[in-house]
Amino acid sequence: MTAASTAVPTATQPPDTPTELSLTDALRMAIEMQRERLFDGAETLYRRVLAVVPEQPDALHFLGMLLHQRGRSDEGIAHIERALAAEPAYVGAYNNLGNIHASRGEIGNALLAYQRALALTPADSAEAADLHNNLGALHKVQRRWAAAQSHYEQALAIDPRHVNAHNNLGLLHAARGDLASAIRCYCQAIELMPGNSEGRKLLGITYYTVGKIAEAAEVFRQWLADEPDHPVARHMYASCSGIHTPERAADNYVEYTFDRFAASFEQQLNERLNYQAPQLCAALLQRRLPPPAAELVVLDAGCGTGLCGPLVAPWARTLAGVDLSRGMLDQAQTKGVYQDLYKAELTEFLRLSPDQWDVILSADTLCYFGDLHEVIGAAGRSLRPGGTLVFTVEALPDALDRPFRLEPHGRYAHASGHLRAVVEQAGLGLLDLDAVVLREEGGQPVHGWLVAARRG
């Protein structure tokens, strides 16, 4: 049966609107609706296509992606696998299957999917270069350094101008302690694409990682001179130079940074596999709350990609998330545990929701605030009486005799004395103030504070 001879019924339309679409037109319309985030309509059209042609591979593939976007990843994977059973040489379906598995931290399944896609792809094509780059990222998070380097180098052999592969090879060298090679890779990426912000950012990061703060500041100064309105250049120059230090990270810096983070599966993998704050917050809640009974109203404040969501959902009758980044919220939606997701600045959101939450948790969000009095005060008023606040921040040694400081990596660190003061001023009772390791960065532990407080 050909697309031209297959009719798909549409939803009820005005009398002068066609009531049937060809298969090709129905798929095109569904894909466009999915792109515009009109998920209900897109899903309806995909299912109507499949009612006519049950094993139509494109409808199965794109419906699978949509189901993943809506937080129903198991169903999505099953649909994509049906698409591959119907069309075993479907490279795009293998690639997206790999993306879903990678986003779930299922490295073995992701590797298998990308390897099958690569086997079906012309060896000298741009698609093959992208797949080698993806495979390199998967091997890197497994610390299989030689395999990762081989794939990045194969990507560059196919496409010497593959900027992401240059940057990722630089990250690999940095992870192995070869900072000279890392700097060389970032410089190559910048030469290939002078406007590529990622190479400049990584070059500056590499300098401050080895203690060359002045050199890092100069990288960011030159970047800011070229792009005066770039939020990352502005924030990172302030971080490394100490000039025009903001009271908190600007909204446009947070949105820019984390929208791009959400689109990078390499960064998501590193977050998922090398990041302890969600588990630490969940463990502290377990100590401070009754056993999970799905009866609390819970806010994930700065929910990011939703890593905390599945860990705290057992306590929640309602689980909401708030974040400034639309890209992060889209990723959080795929976890399938949030009833509500809000795009908003955190302090203002808390001000507008007084006496609403039984639990507020915030994993590695408050490190983008300097003075915490305002945001913790808003959190205290947003809790219901008896409500619990749990959060992490990065640690500033009390011996420095400063309440907080913007560090060269662009995040704020806070002294324990400042945390005690802001909790007390918010009218909360301090329950826990524990020294923890939040994650590794550049091979070094990132020390932090894990805090619990309760409204009386």
From TrEMBL:
Per its UniProt record, what InterPro entries does this chain match?
A: SAM-dependent_MTases_sf (IPR029063), TPR-like_helical_dom_sf (IPR011990), TPR_rpt (IPR019734)
Asked if the record carries the keyword Methyltransferase, the reply is yes
Q: Which GO terms describe its molecular function?
A: methyltransferase activity
Gene3D superfamilies, alphabetized: Tetratricopeptide repeat domain, Vaccinia Virus protein VP39
Q: Which UniProt keywords apply?
A: Methyltransferase, TPR repeat, Transferase
Task: Spell out the residue ranges making up region: Disordered.
Answer: 1-20
Q: Which GO terms describe its biological process?
A: methylation
Record-linked PROSITE patterns: TPR, TPR_REGION
Residue windows of the TPR repeats = 57-90, 91-124, 129-162, 163-196, 197-230
Q: Which PANTHER family match?
A: PTHR44998, UDP-N-ACETYLGLUCOSAMINE--PEPTIDE N-ACETYLGLUCOSAMINYLTRANSFERASE 110 KDA SUBUNIT
Name-wise, this protein is Methyltransferase type 12
Organism in which the protein naturally occurs: Leptothrix cholodnii (strain ATCC 51168 / LMG 8142 / SP-6) (Leptothrix discophora (strain SP-6))
- List the top taxonomic levels of the source: Bacteria, Pseudomonadati, Pseudomonadota, Betaproteobacteria, Burkholderiales
